[in-house]
Amino acid sequence: GPALAYAALALAALASAPLAWGSFAPAPEAAALRLPRLAAFGFGAAVLGHMFAQVGVWPMATWTMLGWTAATVRFLAGAIGWPCLQRALTFPSLMANTVTVVVWYLGIVPGVLLMAPEGVRRRFREHMVLSAFLFIVHGVNLPFCLADWYLQPMQLELFDLWAGVAYGLAYLTFYLGVLDPLGAHLYFVLTPRKWWGGLFYAGLTGSMVALWAGLNAWAARLASAGA
């Protein structure tokens, strides 16, 4: 069940931490990218500022906005020369924003448009699908995040995968320990009360491994093309 899957993930993360940290290396210096990264940070921060002004801070409890924030802070770290923080956020931000886009466009949007009553579908289209802000954080977020890695591709190590799993586990802990008891069921697939919740936890972890391997294959192709 979900409890067993959660415990297994937590124990695996703890047990693999020394090995993962042994592969850690700061992000390589890229002075030519500092100004573009600073501009990207400004864009990311402006989106966050707009959100705070319009609806407050509560969306920071969502996976979507935490992923956007991770990408924004990563741009800042690269712009001001904090290579350790930049590296630590590299895979978590890529993973989080990939999950956001996949879940939104392959799960939530089609699910609502196909299954909800007409009135709900209409409001969802007008206020969610056609919202410029929500398109930015559910669509633009992925190329926004990938652009930094594409401009400076790096081979991802075990640490990067571990950091992504730790990020996901930290959010799951927050969701199960804080949001779910408060009745804020933002993501029904994270429920601890259904047997299939554990399958989703395991599937998400497997997807992280696949993304990590895919990005490494892409980095290798980019390196060979530039050689």
Automatic annotation (TrEMBL):
Q: Which UniProt keywords apply?
A: Membrane, Signal, Transmembrane, Transmembrane helix
Please give the start and end residues of each transmembrane region: 38-58, 94-116, 128-149, 161-183, 195-215
What domain of life is recorded for the organism?
A: Eukaryota
- Signal peptide residues are 1-22
The answer, when asked if Membrane is one of the entry's keywords, is yes
Q: What is this protein called?
A: Uncharacterized protein
Organism equals: Zooxanthella nutricula
